[in-house]
Amino acid sequence: MSTNADRLRQLFVDLDRLDFDAAAAHCTDDCVYDDMPFAEATVTGPAAIRAKLELGLGMLERLPTTIHELVENRDTIMVERTEVWHHRGGERATLPVAAVFKFRDGKITLWRDYWDAKTLFSQQPASWLPDVPRP
């Protein structure tokens, strides 16, 4: 595996541990993070990425991720993964995600996740992001 693939795998280790500072540190100052179901949730830069991760994942106990496919072409990696959201109250949500990551000088410049909002929201407790309309 390449340095970029190693960094990507470490990103998922950091997310499993809910270490948002470490996760955001994998990103360049101009990195764009898109959740494709919600264009309004796009953020740019490590501080904004950290805040977004904290907002969406901060109430979890952990977030183990299984990578099923990882395809790399120069500075672009496409990955198919499954996340299992472990809430502190015992609830769990399983989310399949496809993603595109772009790299520059060993850091992430683009993080674009494709996932189904209905699949995720239907498994979440009502306390998770209560102000976000459910699909």
What does this 3D model show about the protein?
With 135 residues, the chain is α+β, with helices and mostly antiparallel strands. 27% of the residues lie in helices and 41% in strands. Strands 1, 2, 3, 4, 5, 6 and 7 form a 7-stranded mixed sheet that branches. The mean pLDDT is 93.
Quick structural overview:
By secondary structure, the chain is α+β, with helices and mostly antiparallel strands.
List segments where confidence is low: pLDDT < 50 over at least 5 consecutive residues.
none
Computed over alpha carbons, the radius of gyration is 14 Å
SSE series: HHEEHEEEEEH
Which structural class fits the helix and strand makeup?
A: alpha+beta
Q: What is the number of helical segments per DSSP (H or I, 4+ residues)?
A: 4
Helix percentage range: 25-40%
Strand content: 35-45%
Cα end-to-end separation: 38 Å
- How many β-strand stretches? 7
Biggest sheet architecture:
7 strands, mixed
What spatial form do the alpha-carbon principal axes imply? globular
Mean pLDDT: 93
SSE map:
Blueprint: H1 3-16, H2 20-24, E1 27-35, E2 43-44, H3 46-57, E3 60-62, E4 65-73, E5 76-87, E6 92-104, E7 107-114, H4 117-121
Parallel strand pairs: 1-7
Antiparallel strand pairs: 1-2, 3-5, 4-5, 5-6, 6-7
